[in-house]
Write a structure and sequence with these properties.
CATH class of chain A: Mainly Alpha
Number of strands of chain B: 0
Order of helices and strands of chain A: HHHHHHHHHHHHHHHHHHHHHHEEH
Largest sheet of chain B: none
Number of helices of chain A: 23
Helix content of chain A: over 70%
CATH superfamily of chain A: Sodium/glucose cotransporter
Radius of gyration of chain B: 18 Å
Number of strands of chain A: 2
Structural class of chain B: mainly alpha
Strand content of chain B: under 5%
Shape of chain B: elongated
CATH architecture of chain A: Up-down Bundle
Largest sheet of chain A: 2 strands, antiparallel
Oligomer: heterodimer
Strand content of chain A: under 5%
Radius of gyration of chain A: 23 Å
Number of domains of chain A: 1
Chain lengths: 515, 73
């Protein structure tokens, strides 16, 4: 069993205490009436370029990313680097599509993607499909953030049995739940600034110190086995690892901004211009993520996994222990505290935004649409605060009682599900040509086909399509959203004809999409 | 207001600068281009440093597109 690292733990607790205070104090930042949903749930849409940078960065580069991407590089090698093309691809999408969505959402007071779909296509069932997909895809994502906290708390040497084992996690989440409830989106926005500063410091320290200790990059990469260093060159009649690599990057990129928490962070920006500027400066995070993926290879080179000191951690947390072990191995205790605090706080920021996003979705697109059509502002924001609590408690219960691997598998399925909302949300920002019922059928078939592919491939990320002796392994999310879109295009004229040319009202007008 | 509901929305202004995004996409989605160890940079294999460099290049591309399309937005 590991020893408790006193100094590291003290620094960790100190930093955690500081962001707890910050989370509550944030309620007074750019003060607004928190009894209105767009104030609580979108920070009043007042975040400028720099705060948006921290908020979106803190939101999409989650603690789990910082643990899991290096862990994948440590375990599987070069293929983990698909995270880099993925983050390269997301920013042109952000640049081209989201300023338009921001404009129309601002104009009509939409706070979720489902609000937009409801207004654009005038079909509450399509909006409901978008809502449910968003909620179901995000819940396991919150649970995964807890895995990040579990790993660093374990690495600090804080262990126990029974309820004591989960106590740090429960405390962290109680803190998170309380400041999210009282401050709304302002809490993660202010904490993100602290968290990212810490993450940048920790990453650059690792990238500089570890190669110095291990004798330079040349030695590090020489110690990595050849089959992990590069992608396997595909054999004849298959796109092999190249196809998987490219489709994983593209599919993940298309899915990312469809997640409700990405949408929440983007819509909280103060203008479409702030979003465009962010498309150019957010790659700062991508660069850091790429460096961290290389850190996974450092762990191989340092031979840490074979040291008896860390055997316990690798046994308990598997490859997810790679980065914490490296940090423990290389740095003095006080810096271990800083780096681990960065990871744990890094879990709270996206978890808070995700729970707010779920709350916004439930409140606007289920409760107001189907249960109470005319809530007061106060009822609406109170409902959202309560739902954000329920979402977090649900995630906590999930992670305490259900094995971690199920959270990971559900999150994988979540990517396949959320991408099915692409035609309605992303393409909907540009065109109203699609028929709402065709979109609904495309969504349903894409979701079913994607889930079936995931099961057929034993919940692996890729599925192998075969045509005439050729095989194409690739990301099932990408394959099924193509099927989805094909159906939408074929069925739109059919449903239009069946509807006799009647189309529901589009409450948005072309001018709403431009500033 | 549009003439009728089904009418396509007003086209956003096209700019040739958007082609930079296409270049950015095609290069990074073609792994055979960079799946090699040589040449190394400071001992880092090509596969790794090229993709990291491409992050910076694409940030510059996006900034260029932003500056060149700003007036028309």
């Amino acid at each position: 069993m590991p020893q408790v690292n006193g100094i590291a733990l003290a620094v960790f607790v100190l930093l955690f205490g500081f962001i707890t205070w910050l989370g509550f104090a944030a309620a007074r930042w750019r003060r607004g009436d928190l009894d209105q949903l767009h104030e609580w749930g979108l920070g009043g849409r007042r975040f400028g370029t720099l705060v948006t940078w921290f908020l979106v960065g803190g939101d999409i580069y989650t603690a789990y990313t910082f643990i899991a991407v290096p862990a994948l590089a440590f375990g599987a090698g070069a293929v983990a680097f698909f995270a880099v093309p993925y983050t390269i691809l997301i920013y042109p999408l952000l640049f081209l599509i989201f300023p338009r969505l921001w404009n129309v959402c601002h104009k009509h007071g939409y706070i979720t993607a489902a609000d937009f779909v409801r207004g654009r296509f005038g079909n509450r069932w399509l909006a409901l499909a978008v809502t449910i997909t968003g909620i179901v895809a995000t819940l396991p994502y919150i649970a995964l953030q807890l895995v990040g906290i579990q790993v660093v708390v374990g690495a600090l040497g804080v262990t126990g049995t029974g309820i004591a084992a989960d106590l740090p996690l429960i405390i962290a989440f109680a803190v998170l739940a309380a400041f999210t409830y009282s401050s709304g989106l302002r809490a993660p926005a202010s904490i993100a600034i602290v968290k990212d500063t810490l993450i940048y410091i920790a990453t650059f320290a690792i990238i500089i110190v570890v190669p110095l200790k291990l004798g330079g990059f040349e030695k590090i990469f020489a110690a990595v086995p050849a089959q992990k260093l590069l992608l396997a060159v595909p054999g004849p009649h298959t796109t092999g690892a190249y196809g998987s690599y490219a489709t994983l990057a593209l599919g993940s990129a298309l899915a990312l901004f469809l997640y409700p928490h990405s949408m929440t962070a983007i819509l909280s920006a103060s203008s479409g211009g702030a979003i465009r500027r962010n498309a150019a400066i957010l790659p700062g995070y991508s660069f850091m993520l790429g460096l961290l993926a290389m850190v996974g290879l450092f762990v191989i080179a340092a031979g840490i996994a074979d040291l008896p000191d860390y055997a316990w951690g690798f046994k308990t947390f598997k490859n997810n222990f790679a980065v914490p072990a490296l940090i423990l191995h290389v740095f003095p205790s006080w810096f271990v505290g800083v780096a681990f605090a960065a990871i744990a706080i890094g879990a709270l920021v996206p978890a808070a935004i995700m729970s707010i996003a779920i709350a916004n979705l439930y409140t606007r697109n289920i409760h107001r649409e189907f249960i109470n059509r005319n809530p007061t502002n106060k009822q609406e924001s109170r409902m959202a605060k309560n739902v954000s609590l329920i979402a977090k408690v649900g995630a906590l219960i999930f992670i305490i009682f259900v094995p971690t691997k199920y959270a990971i598998q559900l999150q994988l399925l979540g990517g396949i599900w959320i991408i099915q909302t692409l035609p309605a949300v992303m393409l909907g920002a540009y065109t109203r040509w699609f028929n709402a019922w065709a979109l609904l059928v495309g969504w349903a078939v894409g979701t079913l086909a994607g889930t079936a592919m995931a099961y057929a491939s034993n919940l692996a990320t890729t599925y192998t399509l075969g045509f005439g002796g050729y095989s194409f392994p690739g990301y099932s999310a990408l394959y099924t959203v193509i099927l989805n879109l094909f159906l939408v295009i074929v069925l739109t004229p059919v449903f239009n004809a069946l509807g006799g040319g009647r189309k529901p009202v589009d409450e948005t007008s072309p001018a709403d999409y431009t500033a | 207001m549009p003439a009728e509901n089904g009418a396509p929305s007003k086209r956003p202004k096209w700019s040739w600068w958007y082609l930079l995004f296409v270049v950015q996409f095609l290069v990074i989605l073609w792994p055979p281009l960079y799946n090699k160890a040589e040449p190394t940079l400071f001992g880092i294999p090509f596969f790794y440093w090229f993709q990291l460099l491409w992050v910076l290049v694409s940030a510059v591309f996006t900034a260029v597109v932003y500056l060149m399309t700003r007036e028309s937005q």
